[in-house]
Amino acid sequence: MLAIAEESFGGVPALHIYDMNDGKKPLPAVLYWHGFSSAKEHNLHIAYQLAKQGVRVIMPEAKHHGERHEGLTEKQRFFQFWSIVLQSLHEIEYIYDSLEEKRLIKEGRIFAAGTSMGGILACGALAAFPWIKGGAVMMGTPAWEAYARRQVEALKQQGDLPFSEEEIEQEVQQLLSYDLSRQPELLAGRPLFFWHGREDQVIDYRDSFSFYEGIKKEREEDVYVFHLEQRAGHKVTREGMLAMTKWTAAHI
Q: CA 64 to CA 43: how far, in whole Å?
């Protein structure tokens, strides 16, 4: 039987999912972040598949989402997209420290993973924290700068950009050190799984696929995996979810 508990780790509200037979003993752990305008509980089906394979799953709530929603409109929240991602990135350290203090992680085996915005965050976490042992990216991208500049161009075309060029450039510059596509050496051989739909109109798969094509030359086994689903858009399919959870449980 699986347990689903509402807890706080390092001051960050989260759902904690694990097999009750394992109680509080150390387990390999996955930090799984939700997408933009979503909430932590929307990924419980993923947590279920991982937890029944012996993985502890922590699903944090990002700022301005779910129970941390502070009344922003959707547009106001969108303008906070990268500040939300960066705050979540810093909160990963607080969550990790709390898990370590409670001795819930087995032998340091912890992965970062997520859907859409959460997948973007997982890539940044791999760039920022060498103690993260691997990751799974569902519809995210390691190319932070390229994606941010595309967002800016889209807003310009809509005539809906409340920032000066200088402010935009300052924002983008904050992202560069977490852009894994610009620093593939930071991955350092850690396992990484990608899933993406070819018809995704929100986050183009090509940046992730280009990154994957570059790193896969380093390893011949299935340490690096890219599942590109031909007719899928910006929604993870059941097949993609099952492939990711099976791969993660095998590699964590």
A: 17
Which amino acid belongs to residue 98? S
**Three-state SS for 43?**
helix
Closest alpha carbon to 133 in 30, 1, 21? 30
126 token code pair: 């791999």
- Element spanning 37, H or E: none
Give the separation between CA 83 and CA 161, rounded to whole angstroms.
16
Strand partners, 135: 112, 192
pLDDT tens profile 232-241:
999 999 999 9
CA distances from 91 to 85, 104, 155 (A): 10, 17, 28
Query: pTM, whole model, 2 decimals?
Result: 0.94
Which residues are 33's β-sheet partners? Answer: 114
Residue whose pair of structure tokens reads 């450039």 in the numeric block? 169
Tell the residue number behind the tokens 């593939």, with chain if given. Answer: 184
3-state SS class at 56: strand
Distances (CA, A) of 138 to 76, 156, 195, 226: 25, 27, 5, 10
C-beta neighbour count of 6 within 10 angstroms: 12
Residue type, 162: P
Residue 92 DSSP label: H
